[in-house]
Structures are given as structure tokens and as C-alpha cells.
Amino acid sequence: MHPLNHSHLPFLNLFFENSKERQPEYITPFGYIIYSELNPAKERVYLIIDISTFEYGKDFRVEIKMLAASEEKFKKYRDDENAIYQYHHNYLGGDTVQMLQDKLGPLAEDETYFVESNYHSHPNPMEHVYKLKAQDYIATLTEWFTANPLNKEYIHRLGNSEEDKEKVLALYNGGISGVLQCINLRDFRSYGYGEPRTSWSENQWFNKDFAALKDIVILSVTNNKSLLPEALDMIQGYPYLVELNLSDNNLDTVPPGLDKLADLKRVTFKHNNFTDMEAFAKLTQVHKLDLTGNFITAIPDDIAKMELLEVLDLSGNKITELPEALLQMKRLKVLNLSNNPLKQLPDWIGQMTGLEELNLQQTQLESLPESFANLKVSGRIYLKKNPFKELPAGLLDMGKVIDLEERNIALYNPKVKKKLASLPTGNIKMNADLNFKLMVVQRLMYEDELLLPKFDVYEFVKNHKGREIDLEEISYEMIPEVKAWFENLDIPLELLWDIKELRADGGDEIYHELIPHWDGEDDVFDVVSAEDVKYFPNLKKVTLMGNNKEVVKFLRENKIKVSFL
């Protein structure tokens, strides 16, 4: 193994987001990286970074595993070179080690083999293995991960089935008994089940002893009835915490001490009960903040203090106006304000710079200020699902940056206006085939939320004036009254102009409105006629549940691509 030293620490830190002290140790004969650190019990543990690729120098896959949970257990790898070869043999399989030694020759002290992960399936596998100088290997990885920062969300190996608790680095919903014995745990995620949902403190996995797992990097505890103060108080004791997700927990207060966690970069508190974000604005170290689906009414001026913030998601709140302080956030790349009652935007919006994505979908906008055309966004600006009545002509110069329905593009683009003027308008029933219509309603009503209000079979039954409908008795059958409702539903033609793809899936909500307990196993919703595609000027692809040859032939004759589930 090629030894590493403290000078290689910048290279090692390419794989991490927190400030925990680590010691580079070795590069193994197959390009894996061994490093060590002290765990909460002050024991030195040795971990291995498993690196593979489909094309050396172009793309890499990374996973971290526990190699040895003590110095004593690591001795065999340090003292016996065959031990690390055996480790690689167990993971790479076959006679990889012997093959490389036979074909490429033994390694010099400063060399490493590198095996592309797809070499087994290649007719000439030796085209996919290399012998490299260790420093060249380090230089390649450094260049790649500097230019392409590693997504570290799932970098630690899942340990739900790991028998040796000392080696468990990641646990999802427990998975093994004695979770508190997993002293080296880095990534813990728990999703509450059942009704009523249990509180964190009532769950056997989450008691006061859990605070001892101080090396936690990612903590996700979601969908609980409540998180009691004692449980929330523990979080400030995780000094290396990078990501915290406490979504769907009925929270209205921020856990104490989060502003003191210097490594905390990603915070998600979706679908809780927050009415303001003053406490979150104090988290000046955070890079991503997601507060989707709360009851926040305003963005505070203090948001400007979050100078490192790159992603801000406030979709699904009650925000009515934007503070000019947003102009000071020079690192902000993604701003999601969708599904807020903004109704209008300030004139200064066009001065924002550095954005890669701006989402203003479903924000009740009827117009945009003229300055909006000056907005510089490198990616996309999402403006769909707004009742626009007028739009500035300058949007025409923004081109494909704007994501908007064609009927609204026509408000500023003369060519689109002329094109749409030739299309029929008004409402249609689309009665050629109810099942084809249901695909369309699924898209417009339950996905795009353009055909409102959404139909709810339980509300329908409750308010039905005809015969009494008992869903418990007939929930496995198609309800005639519901079928008739959808047959009589009017579809505005202008909502069809933007549809480029339709997709049917047995799990779609629409089918369970007609047959609440449909299991998706029969052909009751298979399309038998696609005649109504004539109303879709931009339809390019249809995914079907059944394979009616006449339907497939008809669609393909109309130059529509067909695929199947």
C-alpha cells in the first residue's frame, strides 16, 4: 500500500463536508483510500473510500465503508499485504487480483492498480485496467472532484443488514437491534409509521443515549406526531452535523443551538407549522434551506445575513411580497417561491444576479414588471400555473430560459399568438374513449393542477343527492355516478395545447377515484381508442398500460411515440 501523510489532507477532504479531524493513511493496490479518525469513544478507527469508475479520469463513484474498528484490527492490513488484497478480492470478485498481477506485473511502492467497474462485461477486460503512479492517481481525482464536487448525500454505506455493529455507518429506520451500539454511525434516517405517529422520545431508537453518537453527519427524523424538547435539544450536541431534516413533525420552533453548528450546511423543515423564518435567518452557515409547505407570511430582511445560502425553497407558504434584501444574496443560485400568493413582483426583481433557477409557478401573478426582462438566470425561470393577463415584450429576448404555457407565451410572442389563433377554442367532452380522457384528466387535474377543483370521491359521495353510496361495499367496483361525472366533465381546449406527453400508470390517482380499491391488475382502464389525439397539437409521446394493437397503430400513424409500462 502506498502511504499517505498530512500533506495529502486537502486531497482527502475532497470527500467530506465537515471539520472532523482525519488522518490520511494509504492508497490501496486498487486505488481505494484508507484514512483514520477518532470516534466518540476516543478509539482510532480506519475507514476505506471505495472508488470505482466507468471511464477512468471521466467519472467516479464513491462509497465509504468501515475497514477496521480499532488499531488492533487494522494491524493485519498494515502488516500483511495479502490481507488488503483479500479485501479487494472479496469486493471485486473472480480472479481480479491474480489477473492484474499476471498481466500488468507487480506494483512498485509508488503505484496502484485501477479497475474500471464495468471491465467484467468487456470482451477485452485488460482495456479497462490500469497501473498508475499514486501521485498521478491523486492528481486525476483531485482535478475531477474539484471540478465536479461529489454528491455526499449517500456516501456512507448502508448498514441495516450489517451484523458487526461497529462497522455500521448508516441506518435507515433502525434495521438492526441495538442501534446505540453503532458507535461509528454517520447517517441516520427515520420515517415515522402508522397513526397516531409516535414522538421521537417515545420511540426506542430515540432516547437520551442517542446523544452519544456524536459523529452523526446526516440526521433525518421525519413524519412524527411530535418531537419533544429533550429530543430536539440533543441535536446541538452533534458538532459534525452537515444535514438536518425534521420535516412533517408539527414543529413551530427551531431546535436550540443550530446556529452554533459550524458544519451545518443543509436544513430541511418541510411541512411543519412555522409562521415566520426569523430563527432560520440566524443560520448564517447554511448553504441550503428548505421550508416548503409551512405557513410563513414574509421573508425577513435578515435573510441577507445568510451570505453562504445557495438554495432557498419557500414553496407552498403564504408569502405575499419579497424583501429587497434578496439582492444582497450574491451566492443564491436557486430560489423557489412557487405556490405562494405573491400576486405581483417588485420592480427591482430584474436586478437579481447569479441565479441558476427561479421558480414562480402558481404565485397568482397576472403580470410581470418590465424590469423582469433584465433578469439574468443561467438555467430556467418557471412561470406556469399563473393567470397572466399581460406580459412585457422583453420576455421574447429571454428565449428558452422562460418555462411558460404557450397560451401565455402568446401574450408577448407574435409568432406563437398567430399559431394559437388558428387552433380551435372552447370546451370538449372527449368522449371517444373515457380511458384516454382519464389519462388527460390525471395530467391536468392531479399533476399540473390546471383543471380545478380536484375531484375527491369521498367528498363526492358525502354530497351526492341521489342514491346512498357505501364506499366500503362497492370500493372494488367502478362507481357509475363517478364514471358519469368524468364523462360529462368539460375539458378546455387551451389546456391541451402544451401537453407533449401523456402517461398512464396503475398508481395514478384518477383510477382510484373511480375504483377506490383498484389493484391495477385488470384491463378495465386500458385505452381502446386514441381518436381524441386530434385535439393535442404538440403531443409527442404516450405511455399505455395495455397494448391494443389498433391504438398503437393509430398513434404511430399520427407520429406519436408509444411506450408501455
Automatic annotation (TrEMBL):
Entry-linked Pfam families: DUF6892 (PF21832), LRR_1 (PF00560), LRR_14 (PF23598)
Keyword Metal-binding appears in the UniProt entry: no
GO cellular component: cytoplasm
InterPro entries in UniProt: DUF6892, Leu-rich_rpt, Leu-rich_rpt_typical-subtyp, LRR_dom_sf, LRR_domain-containing, LRR_R13L4/SHOC2-like
Entry keywords, A to Z: Leucine-rich repeat, Repeat
SMART domains, A to Z: LRR_TYP (SM00369)
Record-annotated DUF6892 domain positions: 431-562
Cross-referenced Gene3D superfamilies: Ribonuclease Inhibitor
Residue ranges of every copy of the Disease resistance R13L4/SHOC-2-like LRR domain listed in the record: 270-362
Top-rank taxon: Bacteria
Coiled coil (residue ranges): none
Keyword Ubl conjugation carried by entry: no
Name the UniProt record assigns to this protein: Leucine-rich repeat domain-containing protein
